């Protein structure tokens, strides 16, 4: 079954709406941007959540000690790194790491990425390259490029996903998980109905690709 992460949550109401929609994981952005949240508020939200929901902190080129302190303070489960963090940086993080690969500025050298990071990260997140941005842009990249990759580490698909296109994206890329932010928003705010629609779309298509005995 393809897992679902809903990212960029900024308040308790939207976090609980994501959980009630059926998200397996939720994400908090600690980098600059309109979805940025304070560690104090993130910790308060996380402490209110039911068990078995994976919590992720999103960082971009943040000083490692600061990342580790926030991870401990908020009790994050995972770290999602969107910048130029090195394998050594990932290795010294106090939580398992998901490392972002920015797609669209030429096909990445996936063997190089696998050999350099594969043993030090839990998964690779594929997001759309947009000059001057590090994520959450709502833009897709050619999903056919994923079929050419030889990454052996689990793949998380992001970049412009929404309830209408996520089934096709899964069909073409067969990821371990999908990650959505702007695709479940209305007027810049998380929309409970769109979150439910997104999770339903993922759940409806997952058995076709992962449970068909034929």
Automatic annotation (TrEMBL):
Pathway participation: Amino-acid biosynthesis; L-tryptophan biosynthesis; L-tryptophan from chorismate: step 3/5
Domain of life: Bacteria
Keywords: Amino-acid biosynthesis, Aromatic amino acid biosynthesis, Isomerase, Tryptophan biosynthesis
E.C. number: 5.3.1.24
Gene Ontology biological-process entries: L-tryptophan biosynthetic process
Any one GO MF annotation of this record: phosphoribosylanthranilate isomerase activity
Catalytic activity: N-(5-phospho-beta-D-ribosyl)anthranilate = 1-(2-carboxyphenylamino)-1-deoxy-D-ribulose 5-phosphate
InterPro entries found in the cross-reference section: Aldolase_TIM, PRAI_dom, RibuloseP-bd_barrel, TrpF_fam
This protein's record includes keyword Amino-acid biosynthesis: yes
UniProt cross-references to HAMAP family, sorted A to Z: PRAI
The name this protein goes by in its record: N-(5'-phosphoribosyl)anthranilate isomerase
Organism of derivation: Paenibacillus zeisoli
